């Protein structure tokens, strides 16, 4: 007769399960002595991490509704393919397309408003030419505010329309006063109130000239936001983030900061050049930079934790960022910060 030895691992597992089963039947008693206290837990233990990963900041926290509002991509009826990005990124960007024939919209690289080029729309007296962007979400009764930066030749009439349907009445148009357009770029306000719901509304920017092939205009930048935005941030997002009661927010990343040039993301938002982020392969308009982040921290009553570029950056740039945020107005960077509307460190 032959005996087979038992597997020692099985024996140990059986003993372990027996012990655990026995322990589950035994009551556990705990005593808390509330009279013994220690130092309060720091509010900085719990925080948030804010990074420009594709459109996470620009589309989810910032209230801007338009993509490519400073025209990184050329405007054609066949938009260029975007570089490959993370698969979980939001669907492809909404591109600007021409209204009318493609040849009436060109990209002027000799006199760009910001970035590498600016759209130039050529006009004629008997046709309307311009650009449009579709895929916008608007809601009935809600107001939208924005601005457009233009330069136009004599005899040019420019109109900007928010369109939420197919009927002739499903639009609101702002006519730019031609008498106020001179030989330099000027910014004009835009205000709309949608009278219908749509997830495929569009913004049209068109012009006409006074003679055959007469007149033209450049569009430096354009912006559209819900009117209830809070200093540029989405109101509903601010309300949600306040409920987290975070102690600290870290900005701007993450991998993103390794290629972030902070000086491109301060000052006039319309003059900040759009760039292709080499980390996440997405266009960044640089609309949300250091000043906007600090505004967000004040809105949420959290402390800022600012990271510096240790990828493509250098110690000098990092030191300038420290001076920009903390320096007195007598310092070069503190003076620049004050000129950007923030005199206090």
Q: Short description, anyone?
A:
The chain is of the alpha+beta class. The chain is 18% helix and 27% strand.
Give the tags:
345 residues, 5-stranded antiparallel beta sheet, 2 domains, Jelly Rolls, alpha+beta
Largest sheet: spatial strand order = 2-5-10-7-8
CATH class group of the largest domain: Mainly Beta
End-to-end CA span: 90 Å
Question: How much of the sequence is in beta strands?
Answer: 25-35%
Average of per-residue pLDDT values: 89
Number of strands: 15
* CATH homologous superfamily descriptor of the largest domain: Galactose-binding domain-like
Low-confidence stretches: none
CATH topology of the largest domain: Jelly Rolls
Query: What is the count of distinct domains?
Result: 2
Task: Give a written overview of the molecule.
With 345 residues, the chain is of the alpha+beta class. It folds into two domains: 44-54 and 232-339, no CATH class; 66-226, Jelly Rolls (Sandwich). Helix content is 18%, strand content 27%. The protein is built from six helices and 15 strands. Helix 5 (315-326) crosses helix 6. The chain is elongated, with a radius of gyration of 28 Å.
């Amino acid at each position: 007769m032959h005996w087979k030895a038992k597997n020692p691992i099985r024996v140990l597992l059986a003993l372990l399960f027996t012990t655990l089963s026995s322990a589950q039947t035994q009551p556990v008693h705990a005593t808390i002595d509330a009279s013994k206290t220690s130092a309060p837990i720091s509010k900085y233990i719990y925080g948030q991490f804010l990074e420009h990963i594709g459109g996470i900041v620009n589309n989810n926290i910032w209230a801007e509704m338009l993509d490519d509002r400073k025209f990184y991509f050329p405007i054609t009826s066949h938009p260029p393919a975007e570089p490959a990005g993370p698969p979980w990124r939001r669907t492809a960007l909404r591109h600007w397309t021409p209204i009318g024939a493609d040849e009436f919209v060109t990209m002027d690289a000799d006199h760009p408003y910001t970035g590498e080029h600016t759209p130039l729309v050529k006009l004629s007296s008997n046709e309307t030419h311009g650009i449009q962007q579709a895929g916008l979400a608007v809601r009935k009764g809600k107001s939208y505010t924005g601005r457009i930066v233009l330069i136009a030749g004599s005899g040019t009439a420019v109109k900007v329309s928010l369109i939420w349907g197919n009927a002739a009445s499903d639009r609101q148009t702002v006519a730019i006063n031609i008498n106020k357009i001179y030989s330099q770029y000027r910014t004009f306000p835009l205000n709309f109130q949608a009278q219908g719901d749509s997830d495929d509304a569009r913004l049209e920017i068109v012009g006409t000239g006074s003679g055959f092939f007469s007149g033209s205009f450049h569009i430096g930048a354009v912006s559209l936001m819900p009117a209830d935005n809070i200093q540029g941030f989405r109101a509903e997002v601010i309300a949600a983030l306040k409920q987290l009661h975070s102690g600290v927010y870290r900005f701007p990343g993450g991998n993103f900061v390794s290629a972030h040039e902070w000086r491109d993301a301060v000052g006039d938002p319309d003059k900040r050049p759009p760039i292709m982020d080499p980390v996440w392969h997405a266009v960044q308009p640089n609309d949300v930079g250091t000043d906007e982040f600090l505004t967000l921290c004040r809105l949420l009553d959290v402390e800022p934790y600012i990271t510096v570029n240790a990828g493509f950056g250098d110690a000098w740039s990092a030191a300038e960022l420290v001076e920009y945020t903390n320096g007195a107005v007598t310092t070069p960077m503190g003076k620049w910060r004050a000129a950007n509307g923030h005199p206090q460190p």
